[in-house]
Give the backbone structure.
Amino acid sequence: MTTNFRMALKALTQNKLQAILTLLGMSVGVAMVVIVSGLGRGAQLRIESQIESAGPTRITIRSGNFVPAAVDMNGEQDSGGGEPSEGSVADRGDGSAAPDLSADAAVTDARRRIQAVKATKFKSPPTPLTRADIAVLATGLAGVKSVAAAAQGNTIMDAGANLPVTTLRLAGFDASWPEMTGWNLVDGRLPSDGEHESGAPVMLVTRAIARRLWPDAASSVGEEVPIGGRQVKVVGVIDAAEAGGGSVIVPTIYVPNRLAQALLHRDSYDTIVVRTTSIGVTSQVAKTIRDRMRTLHHLPADTVDDFRVETQSNSALPPMGSDPRLARAVHSNSKGFEQASWEEMAKSLRQAGRTFTLLLAGAAAVSLLVGGIGVMNIMLVSVAARTREIGLRMALGARATDVMFQFLVEAVTLAALGGLIGLVLGGIGLYITEHGLHWATAVSPGMLFLALAMAGITGVAFGFGPARRAALLDPVIALRSE
């Protein structure tokens, strides 16, 4: 194998111009595969990210429940309020018998809820949210992508701060919070996982708060604020829609949760946010979360939840100030809204992305086909030019399979070298596309390996014909050729 590879390299260098042109054709084909794959995957990831940020994939859990018992926030109707019970069949008035709906799944489920024990009691004070709640939500719960908590509260800075304000609002966050809420890092860095675990005195600020606290500083990174006997250092500046910076009077700074709890002298959280893997499972995950938290908080069947579990869809719907029957009807249909409307939109956008990828993949396949034709062309020319060499090898004892294998190795070597060059060209193309045109791209090792494998397969497919032609030459006729 090594001898065949050395002979292949030597044969290719004998006609450098033809080899370079063939390598160029093959490298362009492989580069097209890399660029198309990168653009397609990048477009798909961006679509999923946009759907995830716009769609109801976020579930918020808060301690306390101030919603009236007749208004159900969990996507199921409640029979309270005086209207006819769900699933009942009224008399038609014409004396005819009502249809038998006993086997209907919706009616059966409605009757089960009607006959269930009504939750009329309240637990006061409600159970605070702690790390035990986070552990329950983050362990073995299907459909959950990430879990993060937040603890907030006002604090007074130590004397000698020399800042325009004396009171700050601490907003604690976990390591996964920036990714979940879409924070963009403008300057500096985010706190490390170790800093989150240890509650290190580091913080993030928005650009508006940085200009307000340090108006004369070129960069707020490295500035320190004395709080609770600690010098809390700014390590990064963020820009995010959800990080508004607090009120005009009390600016907000973002610190690791453990630091916020230590400075606020508490071990509970205000909210826990769960990000689901897709829109279609959000309602089911919210229901599972509710069941788990009721078990964790030891709530009997006749007690109302001492917490709130809200999806983005439900939180956007106003439950208060309207007819309870209307609120129940709207909230009970939000589950179908999430599973139908948003999921269908996601499918449509993903289908559009796949169509775009397939169109570009067709162009890449044509480029590889052209490169393969170039490989076949140079191999046919090589066989014709080396007929006497082939006859001499056969006369010295080389078998037909040896000759065919030699030329097949040459074809694969030519295609593989073109593939390696194509990987480099494809990487350059993706870099220019992402940073020059600002298009979304994504590269995976599997994609690069696939592009190189496709180049090798192309070399085998288009090199087999010339290699077989060389192996079938008659040694006597080959030796007599000029």
Summary: The longest strand covers residues 230-239.
